[in-house]
Amino acid sequence: MKKTSINIGVIGFGTVGAGTVKILLRKRKDLEEKLGFPVVLKKIADLDTKTSRGIKLPKGLLIKDSNSILNDPEIDIVVELIGGTGAAKDITLKAIQSGKHVVTANKALLAEKGREIFRAAEKNNVTIGFEASVAGSIPIIKVIRESLIGNSIKNIYGIINGTANYILTKMTEEGAEFSDVLKEAQDLGYAEADPTFDIEGVDSAHKLTLLASLAFGIPLSFNKVYTEGITGITPLDIEFASEFGYKIKLLAITKQDGNEVEIRVHPTMIPKNNLISDVNGVFNAIYVNGDATGDGLYYGKGAGEMPTGSAVVSDIIDIAKLIRSGGKAQDSGIHEKSDLKVRKMEDIRTCYYLRFSASDKPGVLSRISGILGSHNIGIESMIQKGREIKKAVPVVMMTHEAREKDIVSALKQIDRLSVVSGKTMYLRVEGSDS
To answer: What is the pTM of this model?
Structure first.
């Protein structure tokens, strides 16, 4: 017997929760007309029941006790939007064990605890909807899991953190220092009071963990993602990158090479003629390359109340249709079927940008290039600023493709030279034709 309506319980009434609730309430009639049955928001649970979210709620809809949702036999779908990996995990597992489907935007939870959660969902024949966990309004989970199912994915790379992208955009456009732009982003609400996860690449690594597992069938591997943030980027590096014809972006990259998969997040130089280099501000963009489709670029708002709320509602509707049809739970697409291994960062090969602070003396460049050559690192091009009355001047080089291990080893040796001041700055380069 078909259910006459599908009932929803939302746990967590913060930014994303408010966006989700707004859509469910404002679009209720439209959704019912399109689906042919009502989707009813039955309860919202949050410890804060006093703060206004700019929504007029029916009396009694907002409660404090999440167990009232988890123990309600009439609620079909639990929407977990509290974040974190502690209480969120307990709530998610309890919902699954109660036979309720779950929708979440919690990338940290799935990246770090997902193996247990997806196994529990499969055992209890329930669906986990997690479109909102990766790129806000961009339906990238559905694209990889469904639209590109006839493809073997070769690589994915993208900008999947709006805060970091906003900061790098402002630094590029205004020549501003990192610390100044970060404070501005916090004042505007684009960055959290504690922005560590965003600026250190952790948020991107959580999201990339899910994308890599979907694309290549490998186990969720958050602890194997090489993660590097943007705190070391300076206006000087952005200026030099521009002179070489590049921009600097925080990229999440996963690609298959033979029987290994690379999973890495770090500041990356990409050519100015690459479309993704023009993705600015808080927007996200993801390139996916499939063997049948070639390159595809997916672009949109990666965060925010309404864009992320839209992705949450999309999952709710998909699961509501599934419940009404009496179908089996949807396959998450997260598997451990592949024999592929995660490549160690020291073994990746790419081109590099190197910036030395070197004494302006004869023979310095030959000593640096000699060490690079001894580590099988070839120089493609170089910029040395004009002679100035300084103890050291910046010397910038672009290399041909080299191995990470060799770069790190060479720079350790170079940084010990008496004619080199401080630690050499290096960035990886993607999209170079060299």
So the answer is: 0.94
